[in-house]
């Protein structure tokens, strides 16, 4: 169904809820990848925070946002929060605080 064909708020809200569920699923996949990154970093002696990579990830998100007509500054802000959460996750692993 095209967005323009959504007939009412109930249908629209249901579609938003579906997308939110998909986004959470993607975030769970990202979380699993970050866990693997922490294991690899531990093995090869890298720190959780690598500033150049942080900036690269944020810039990539901004570029992708702009190419899709989204506000790059907003998306970069959201991605900075995601990256900070990922760094905290890696730090917990590297410091021996594993779940």
From TrEMBL:
Pfam family, one: CM_2
Domain Chorismate mutase stretches: 3-94
Keywords: Coiled coil, Isomerase
Keyword Isomerase applies: yes
Alphabetized InterPro entries for the sequence: Chorismate_II_sf, Chorismate_mutase-related, CM_dom_sf, CM_II_prokaryot
Residue ranges that the Swiss-Prot or TrEMBL entry lists as coiled coil: 9-36
Catalytic class of the enzyme: isomerase
Enzyme Commission no: 5.4.99.5
PANTHER family: CHORISMATE MUTASE (PTHR38041)
Designated name of the protein: chorismate mutase
């Amino acid at each position: 169904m095209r967005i323009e064909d959504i007939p009412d708020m109930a249908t629209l809200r249901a579609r938003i809820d579906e997308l939110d569920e998909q986004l959470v699923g993607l975030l769970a996949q990202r979380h699993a990848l970050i866990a693997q990154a922490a294991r690899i970093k531990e093995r090869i002696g890298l720190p959780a925070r690598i500033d150049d990579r942080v900036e690269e990830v944020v810039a990539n998100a901004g570029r992708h946002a702009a190419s899709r007509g989204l506000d790059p500054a907003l998306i970069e802000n959201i991605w900075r929060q995601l990256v900070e959460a990922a760094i905290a996750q890696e730090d917990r692993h590297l410091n021996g605080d594993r779940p």
